[in-house]
């Protein structure tokens, strides 16, 4: 047992008493839907997933949301717990977690009008802007029945062996839809006055506590900052928190923002620990422990939040996808080995919203604990991995973890490949962490790293390797526009890697991920919103004291005036950025809009000359008189080495951009590298 006063993280590792239960530390693994809830065999997979996190030291785990009734489901086939028959399958999860010495609560989530099916219900019949179905307003009697559903669900969760439940009352879900006038226009005992609107929350807690007894953990996720004009005031938040305590909650967890609020709350461009000050405001108002959340992804941030007294416990959800052993690594003094969540949402939330199983860009084993296993091999090999981008790094480290003797070659002076460009983009500072993680992993696993070495046939031959992996990445695609060699023209490599000078008037050709990133980069001056909490709140129009209703009413978003005049163009006639991530694309678009970037779809490029960029839109000719044109027109595979090896009868494995450059992202590169390595 570690003596917490001996560690650098005494607050984080300090036990916390909740009712009659002692949590071993102050780290909560927050609720995340995984997509496995609905799969055949999904509960066995979830048992492996949650028990891995329990073994990794999480103080308390909360499952993804489980509906208390049919109408409360997120989708028609989403998981629910409303009858005895459904109890058994949950047992496999609770048994597995308890076998590892962990504690687990089940989240009860009624999505209300956020459900994706035609039977959705809510306080009033007001459709949400982010879902297609208009809800039916519940009758007063049906509201009482919904309360019974929650109580029944909590009792069944107790029978299934859970240590408690979290009642989801924030983020704009069912209970929240009663609390806020935004969605509650009722005139009966469930609407109108605030005391009526919070009645459902209090009845659920009171009746649940009566049903489950005093020792069962009862967490309420309370919205403390709605980020909507018709959200709650701070006074209302405090009244509700006190009433919840009186009704019997054991802990209050923090909710920030409705899903429909157009303000980012968890994506990478939100500064770390951005909202813990909101939870801090509630301290002293109630005596139950408070949990704070959102963009806490390192032990340092978590420790400082607790040391400052913002909360009694921190919730981290995605960081447990990225690294199930987060807490154990803190306990063992190996924080530099933590695989940090970079807030990209690419393999977690984007998957869930695309109805795919969740995983993690930096850790493809997440939610694949039973099908992607890194185990020591009996036949050990000498392996050469050529290229230290994300594909090569993941392949080299997993191969070494499996016991192979690995040499990783990199032509440039540093590992990372394109991540060395990505990390310079405002809002993508977290990419530094992935490079730190891989760098340390290479050391720990004794991978032989050879930098400044462009590999050719002779080097491969001389090495007598058993396996050769080619992860040489990509080259920027030349778009074939007349005049593309004009001195005004730069590629994104020239800008980000070689730091070539860019003028004040700029055309960015190609509006994929990199085109958007280049616009962020070139319009960045004075915009510190991705690292500075105050600048972030100002940029997105959030009251830094959370005094005004919803934290936003009457506050105008404010971005520093851009120093460059930038136009972003694409050939497609669709909205720019339509192909970006489902849960982050809107943020990138909104950010560029606030920076007054001119967006041009449907451009047909004619030529580039001293005048600038000549193009047509709908047959009308335009000239963009600019100083610099930056080409972000996609990429093609760089695989000369592979071809040369093949010609000489040496077989090699192709991964990452060298394999397929189209729509390549780091998620695919890391997944492919890891899976190949595990199979060698
Ligand atoms: P690369 O990263 O290109 O690495 C290839 C490596 O091989 C290079 O280091 C190169 O020097 C080396 N090499 C080449 N030839 C040789 C040789 N003969 N010998 C030795 N070494 C050699 N993806 C995301 O998923 N999310 C994002 O948010 C994101 N943002 C991005 C932002 C920018 C600005 C850029 C440029 C890319 C971004 N990407 C993002 C894309 C992501 O970085 C790539 O998909 C990923 O890097 C591809 O990995 P890779 O290993 O295949 O290739
Ligand atoms: P991309 O997403 O494929 O975009 C390439 C852009 O160039 C498109 O807008 C395309 O649009 C245009 N284009 C393609 N061929 C062209 C041609 N011949 N002439 C003119 N325009 C052309 O590629 P990328 O932006 O280079 O990004 C590379 C990969 O990195 C992507 O697959 C992406 O997933 C990943 N990435 C992800 C993020 C992220 O935030 N998730 C960020 C950066 C990069 P039109 O055809 O309409 O002109
Ligand atoms: Fe974090 Fe990205 Fe992994 Fe999601 S996919 S857990 S945001 S690193």
Task: Explain how this protein is built.
Strand 22 (604-609) and strand 23 form a beta hairpin. The chain has three domains: 4-353, TIM Barrel; 382-475 and 636-679, NAD(P)-binding Rossmann-like Domain (Rossmann fold, 3-Layer(aba) Sandwich), CATH 3.40.50.720; 478-527 and 563-633, 3-Layer(bba) Sandwich (FAD/NAD(P)-binding domain), CATH 3.50.50. The chain has 680 residues and is α/β, with parallel strands linked by helices. The chain is globular. Flavin-adenine dinucleotide binds next to helix 13, helix 14, helix 18 and helix 22.
Describe the secondary structure blueprint for this structure:
Elements: E1 16-18, E2 21-23, E3 27-29, H1 42-55, E4 60-66, H2 87-99, E5 104-108, E6 121-122, E7 136-137, H3 140-159, E8 164-169, H4 174-179, H5 194-197, H6 199-212, E9 217-225, H7 234-247, E10 251-256, H8 276-282, E11 290-292, H9 299-307, E12 313-316, H10 318-322, H11 326-331, H12 349-353, E13 382-386, H13 390-401, E14 405-409, H14 419-422, H15 431-444, E15 448-450, H16 457-463, E16 467-470, E17 474-476, E18 489-491, H17 492-496, E19 505-509, H18 513-522, H19 533-540, E20 565-569, H20 585-594, E21 598-600, E22 604-609, E23 612-617, E24 620-624, E25 628-631, E26 635-637, H21 640-647, E27 653-654, H22 666-679
Parallel strand pairs: 3-4, 3-12, 4-5, 5-8, 6-7, 8-9, 9-10, 10-11, 11-12, 13-14, 13-16, 14-15, 16-27, 18-25, 19-20, 19-25, 20-21
Antiparallel strand pairs: 1-2, 17-26, 22-23, 23-24
Bound molecules: flavin-adenine dinucleotide, NADP nicotinamide-adenine-dinucleotide phosphate (NAP) and iron/sulfur cluster.
Iron/sulfur cluster (SF4) binds next to helix 10.
């Amino acid at each position: 047992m570690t003596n917490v006063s001996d560690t650098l993280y005494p607050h984080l590792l300090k036990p916390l008493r909740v009712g009659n239960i002692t949590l071993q530390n102050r780290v909560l693994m927050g609720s995340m839907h995984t997509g496995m809830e609905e799969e055949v065999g999904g509960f066995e997979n979830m048992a492996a997933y949650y028990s891995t996190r329990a073994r990794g030291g999480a103080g308390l785990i909360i499952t993804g949301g489980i509906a208390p009734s049919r109408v409360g489901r997120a989708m028609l086939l989403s998981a629910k717990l409303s009858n005895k028959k459904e109890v058994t399958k949950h047992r496999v999860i609770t048994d597995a977690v308890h076998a590892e010495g962990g504690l687990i609560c089940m989240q009860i989530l009624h999505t209300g009008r956020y459900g994706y099916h035609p039977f959705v219900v809510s306080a009033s019949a007001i459709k949400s802007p982010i879902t297609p179905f208009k809800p039916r307003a519940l009758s007063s009697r049906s509201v009482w029945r919904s309360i019974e559903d929650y109580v029944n669900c909590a009792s069944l969760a107790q029978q299934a062996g859970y240590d408690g439940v979290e009642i989801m009352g924030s983020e704009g879900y069912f209970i929240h839809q009663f609390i806020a006038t935004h969605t509650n226009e009722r005139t009966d005992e469930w609407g109108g006055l605030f005391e009526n609107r919070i009645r459902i929350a209090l009845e659920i807690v009171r009746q649940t506590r009566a049903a489950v007894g005093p020792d069962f953990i009862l967490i309420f996720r309370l919205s403390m900052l709605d980020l909507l004009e018709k959200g709650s005031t701070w006074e209302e938040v405090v009244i509700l928190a006190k009433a919840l305590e009186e009704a019997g909650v054991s802990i209050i967890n923090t909710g920030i923002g409705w899903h429909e609020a157009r303000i980012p709350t968890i994506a990478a461009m939100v500064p770390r620990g951005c909202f813990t000050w909101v939870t801090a405001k509630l301290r002293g108002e109630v005596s139950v422990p408070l949990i704070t959340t959102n963009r806490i992804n390192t032990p340092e941030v978590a420790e400082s939040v607790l040391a400052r007294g913002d909360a009694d416990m921190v919730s981290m959800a995605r960081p447990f996808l990225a690294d199930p052993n987060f807490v154990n690594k803190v306990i063992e003094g190996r924080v530099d080995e933590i695989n940090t969540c970079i807030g990209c949402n690419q393999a977690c939330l984007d998957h869930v919203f695309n109805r795919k199983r969740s995983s993690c860009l930096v850790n493809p084993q997440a939610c694949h604990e039973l099908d992607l296993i890194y185990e020591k091999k009996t036949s050990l090999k000498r392996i050469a991995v050529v290229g230290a981008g994300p594909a090569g790094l993941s392949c080299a480290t997993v191969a070494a973890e499996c016991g192979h003797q690995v040499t990783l070659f990199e032509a440039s002076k540093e590992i990372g490949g394109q991540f060395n460009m990505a990390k310079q983009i405002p809002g993508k500072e977290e990419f530094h962490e992935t490079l730190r993680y891989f760098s340390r992993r290479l050391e720990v696993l004794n991978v032989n790293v050879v930098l400044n070495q462009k590999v050719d046939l002779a080097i491969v031959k001389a090495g007598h390797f058993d396996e050769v992996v080619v992860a040489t990445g990509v080259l920027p695609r030349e778009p074939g526009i007349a005049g593309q060699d004009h001195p005004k023209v730069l590629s994104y490599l020239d800008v980000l890697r070689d730091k070539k000078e860019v003028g004040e008037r700029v055309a960015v050709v190609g509006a994929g991920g990199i085109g958007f990133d280049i616009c962020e980069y070139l319009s960045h001056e004075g915009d510190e919103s991705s690292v500075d909490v105050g600048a972030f709140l100002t940029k997105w129009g959030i009251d830094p004291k959370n005094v005004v209703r919803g934290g936003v009413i009457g506050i105008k978003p404010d971005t520093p005036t851009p120093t460059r005049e930038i136009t972003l163009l694409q050939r497609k006639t669709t909205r720019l950025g339509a192909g970006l991530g489902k849960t982050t694309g809107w943020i990138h678009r909104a950010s560029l809009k606030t920076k007054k970037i001119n967006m041009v779809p449907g451009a047909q490029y004619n030529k580039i000359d001293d005048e600038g960029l000549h193009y047509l839109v709908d047959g009308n000719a335009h000239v963009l008189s600019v100083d610099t044109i930056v080409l972000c027109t996609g990429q093609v595979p760089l695989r000369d080495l592979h071809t040369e090896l093949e010609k000489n009868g040496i077989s090699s494995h192709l991964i990452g951009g060298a394999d397929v450059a189209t729509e390549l992202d780091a998620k695919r590169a890391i997944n492919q590298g890891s899976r190949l390595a595990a199979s060698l």
